[in-house]
Structure formats: C-alpha cells, structure tokens
Amino acid sequence: MGSRSGGAAARMDPEAATELVRKGGTLLLLDVPQHTVFGIDTQVFSVGPKFKGIKMVPPGPHFVYYCSPSRHGNEFAPTVGFFLTTHTSEVIVRKWHAQEERLVTLSEEEEIRYSEAVKRFEFDDQLGPYNLDSFGDWKQLSSYLSPSVIERIEPIGGEITIAYETSWMDRAPQTDMEKRLMEQLREDKFAQNVSMQSERRGCYYTTIPASVKHKDISADELTLMNLDRTSLLESVLAKSYQGQEDLLLGELQFSFITFMMGQSLEAFMQWKALISLLLSCSEAPLHTRTNMFVKFIRVIYYQFKHGFLRTHESRSIEDKGNSLFLDEAWFSRDIFLYRLSKDFLSVILEAPVVDGDLLSRIQ
Q1: Correct CATH for 159-193+201-310+327-358 of 1.10.287, 3.30.160, 1.25.40, 1.10.490
Q2: For the chain, which residues make up each domain, given as ranges?
Q3: CA 104 to CA 303: how far, in whole Å?
Q4: Interval 85-114: pLDDT, tens
Q5: What is the pTM assigned to this prediction?
Q6: pLDDT digits (tens, 9 = 90+) for 294-331
Q7: CATH topology classification for 14-142
Q8: N or C end of the chain: smaller count of CB under 10 Å?
C-alpha cells in the first residue's frame, strides 16, 4: 500500500518491531478493493494488492475512514468513517461487502478464527505498520476524545458518511465559502450513491442554540447576552454536558475529525456551532472559564495546524477521494472564522488584566 510518509517501524530492529506487533492492536481488513483510499487517524493510504490491514496500532481511540473506487478507478464512493477504541494486543476484524461497498463485521466465530491467525503472524507480511511518527499529531487532535464521548455522539451502527445526511442538503449555506464547501463535499459522490441513503440517523450531536432567548429580561439585556454568549455557554454546559468542560471539548474534536477526515457535512455544521459559541464569549475566557479557554485555544490550534499542514503537503493520495483542507480562504472575510476570531482576539488583547496562560496561547 502507498503512504504519504514512511513508517517508524522501517527503522526498528526486528525485536523491537516484534514487540510492537505483540502489544499493539491489529486492524485486519479482508477483501478491500485495490486503489481504495484508506485512512486511520492522520494517515492515508492507497490500498495495494496485498493489503490486509494495519498492525502496531497504539491503544486508545482511533478514526478509520475509506472511500472505494469505481470499476475504472476514476470515481469514488462517499467516504465512510467510524471510531473504534483499541486495547493492548487486540485484533479487530472487518470484511469488505462488495455490494454495499463498505466494511462489515464478522460472526464471533469467524472473528476468533481470524484473530488467532493474526496472533500466529499468518497475515504479518500483508499488514502495514501504523506510523508511530505521526501518532503524536493524532493525540493532539484527540486529547479529549474519550470512549464515553464517542459512545455519546456516534450514530447507531457507528458509520458516519455524508450519504446519510440528506437533511443537510437543503439547508442554504450562509456564506460563499460555506457554499463552496458544501459543493466540495457532495460533488459527484452523493448523487451517484443513492442506494446508500436510508432512514439512518446521524450523529447525536448536542443542540447548540444560535442565540439566547429569555422572556423575563429587557431587550437591551437580551442584546448584551447575545453579544457575549457566556450565559448561553453556561446553560449548554449545565444542561448537555453535566458541567464538564472536557465533554464539550471532546465533541469539538469529534466533529472536527469527522468533518475533516470523514467528509461529513453534519460534522462541519456542529464544529461551526461550537466554535461560534466559544469565540462569541467575553466574560468566560477572562473570568469564569479561563482554564477552559486555555484548553480550547490549544484544541483549535492543533486543528488549524493539521488542516494547514495537509494543505502544503503532497495531496496525491487524498485528492483521489476529494479530501478537505484548510487554506487561507478559511480566514477570508466571507467566512465565520474571520469575524469571530478577530472579535475574540480583540476582547482578550484589549482587556486590562488577562490570564498569562490564555495570553500566551493566543500570541
């Protein structure tokens, strides 16, 4: 299989590599068509004729995503992605379903049989090593992505794909940039795969109100509350996250990963809603939730770093599947990030007293 970067295992001595194979997890993928674009975390490959999966997968949460080519290899199905949490020496088995063009689980008996074969190294030369050099990048993107966050949000069945997001297609984008994004997400893929559409529900994202609504306050007070959405943030944290800031940050990471790697339009809209809420707060970062905003700035720093880095690297493999990338246009005047970032930075930099950690994060 092809890859954008070399694997760390290529430089390891045989004993160290064997130990990693034994302790790391294995994702055994049977009958995946050649030329399928396959990704795990920040790593993307083009499937070769001998490909049977990935070994040396570190324990923890991971995002697996793929899009299969047409018979002639010039068109691709919508990206399908799912989260999984691996444990030490665990073997996870999936098999390609040719008619449905997706990976499916096997019976328990078959899974045990294949797992034992993996542990006897019968598939070892057909398994590509997880690139440990890039694992640090993934940990930065998934630092709040606990198994409980994933279980809370992921759809029934676990599969995330734009092909199940019909309800979003009729919603008008608010800016030219968002319109171009939506076109990029659904171009060619969606119309060609009507068979994938179903009654499946999407992810169980938290509903983020666009504005504060309150009957018992004056119009002036309501305007101020919508200019500074700290009270809305507190309400959302209390009602939807049991007051736990890290759960909200976990959802922010979940939505970014499924948007950027899984090509999900629904995920982009949730990421936008959460970013918009947090960047519209003035009181929270300066006084009531300073530590949360230190963590938030760190989260979006790595998200932007990942997006921009991929923009400037070779994209030959990802382009086959129409992957998304961040570029300077994301901060142009016609997209929400420009205005919100500008206003948020003004609030922090013009404040008479600012927490040192917060100030260091935004500079």
Answers
A1: 1.25.40
A2: 14-142, 159-193+201-310+327-358
A3: 30
A4: 999 999 999 999 988 889 999 999 999 999
A5: 0.84
A6: 999 999 999 988 877 664 454 555 455 445 555 555 55
A7: Substrate Binding Domain Of DNAk; Chain A, domain 1 (2.60.34)
A8: C
